[in-house]
Amino acid sequence: MKSQILKVLAFILCLATLASLVACNGGQGNETDETTENVANTDETTVGDETTEEESETEFTPPELTVEEADGVATVTTTNGFSYKASGYDSINGASFVFRTKLEISFAEDTFTEKFNRMTMQYRANGPVRIYVTYANHIGEDVVADFFVEEGEGSFSGLILDYLTKKSATNITKIAVEPCKEKKVSFTLYGLETEKIDYYIGSYGSTKFYISNERFKLGVDMGWGGAICHVEDLQSNIEGLGNLVNKHDEGRLVQQSYYGTPAIPGVYEPGESFDSKWVYNPVQGGDQYGNDSRIIDIVVTDTSLYIKAQPQDWSLNGAITPSYMENHYILHEDYIEVKNRFVDFSGWTHPITNQEIPAFYTVSYLDTFVWYDGIDPWTGGELSSRDDLNFWGDPQYAADCRFLMRESNTESWCAWVNEDVNYGMGVYVPNADAYSAGRYEYNGSKDADDDGCGYVAPLKKLRLVSYEALEYSYLIATGSLEDIRAIFKENKDFTANEGLSRNSVSMRLPDGDLDLQHMDFSNEEYCGILTGVNDATFEYDATHQALKCTTLGEDPYAAIEFGTAQTVYNAEDYGTIEVVYMIPTTNSTTSYHMELFLSAGSIGGATAGKSVIKPLVADGEYHTLTIDVSNLSFWSGKINQIRLDYFSGAAVDDVIYVKSIELK
């Protein structure tokens, strides 16, 4: 089961297309369901020098369709002989069926007679749809497999439900198509093909699969949604060091994980984790109860893997999410390229929150975190490093484990290395804004299954938007720090990751130093200093010239990280904190309480008992809240963080405008 404790900070910080234009040739398996494999029967299935399945992108040219209608049933025949019957539609627009609830498509019994484990559909849809395919499994029972399909025109491929147990299917009898949105949609089916591809998993129940070139051996676990479980530098000569990825459980790895809406009454109810209410959290590797994600499609070449997966919802037990994650892993001569894509089909409105892009776990042997913290990127400037990081999920260390980048810093890579031998593994994510990094149960182990590990997540504060693809790419490199940096510099322009800028708020610090003694939120620049957002959105409001804080859940807050400032602020220098605020009369109540968690000295982050609570007035007028902190025993030493829990007992959509926060 996933190590739940390692999800703490990720939660506090709150990763073929669905309409893939991918055509696959070859890769046909043997007829025996249980033994079909692409290589020798070994536990570590590996593809190396020979291409087992070619991936290519082709422009889709739809065939012409003939439609004959009688008594509400349409018979469709294509120019290449494919035929089906359709019913349940409201109208026909050319060759497209328009419907609001469900379109039923049926096939003659002799249409699909050969064994298959993969289906490819050619289609056109003017909105996202969910399809239900009924087929006979390996023992002749009817099975219904559902798939989400994006708006557009092209092809969509999906595997049967029993693919990972090396089974096959026959006889597709019908397809049902439903709109994802509550409105009419038009849909055209141009063709449906089946094939039997190789089973890209190991033997004896193993779901791991490997590809390699002269430099790298890359492994993924199909049972864990195709997440990376193995990166090995085949040219490394460090004794006993093989896999650099910690794979203690499905919560480690290198994988996508995203954070969305809190509870939606009557619609969505997340579970609990760490004795607190969770949020919508698709996780590639599975959920906290050990349930695996579902593999939707696989494409393999000699040096690349494409995997589409449907992830579990972390806090719920076996609740597959209405979303897809896609990963395209490509081996190059001296680095690994990863292309990620995520689409959510829930239809829900998600908050802006911190996202891991991606979650990245390493073996404990790599004990030192290294990154560039300057404003002159790619010029060989001095690197920063920490060999004393603690567990990032512990509130007293959280602020110390967070590293915001400067506005001009495009050298957005970091690495975990062993300083004694100057060797490690780095990740480069263009357009990332920050890092969260730390060590858990540090013991220096080289064992990829050990509980001790290193962690880093490049971060971006953004909103997941239903039906809209979130895409980004990153590079992985291994070797000495000099080699890693040189590889990333040589390939620094491989992508701009422009998709990360949509629906996002910058977390970056200015190249200069903001005055955190006088935080003036009428200056939009200050509105980007808030981190660790939970159950809320924080954005600049031009009308009020203030920071607008909107409640999304039961526990809205955000933090101001003083530790990232160039100036050191000492608590003893400030005896009061003043907050200028206004609460509209349209809110759900006329009074609230604000809590400020004050972290200074040895206190790194929000800690129970280290806070002050004051009442607020909601009358539509601006007020100055004065908080005396001069006699607080814990208000001493360097200020690390102030966490603004701006409301208690608030309702969703309640708002507060903050004009300024000043230390006096």
Which key terms come to mind for this protein?
single chain, 9-stranded antiparallel β-sheet, Beta-galactosidase, Chain A, domain 5, 3 domains, mainly beta, 7-stranded antiparallel β-sheet, Jelly Rolls, disordered N terminus
Account of the protein in words:
By secondary structure, the chain is mainly beta. It folds into three domains: 4-22 and 201-505, Beta-galactosidase, Chain A, domain 5, CATH 2.70.98; 54-195, Jelly Rolls, CATH 2.60.120; 518-663, Galactose-binding domain-like (Jelly Rolls). Helix content is 3%, strand content 44%. The chain contains three helices and 48 strands. The strands form ten sheets. It has a nine-stranded antiparallel β-sheet, with helices on one face. A hairpin with a 5-residue loop joins β17 and β18 (227-233). It is globular. The two termini are 49 Å apart. The relative contact order is 0.11. Mean pLDDT is 89; it is low at 1-5, 8-32, 34-43 and 49-57.
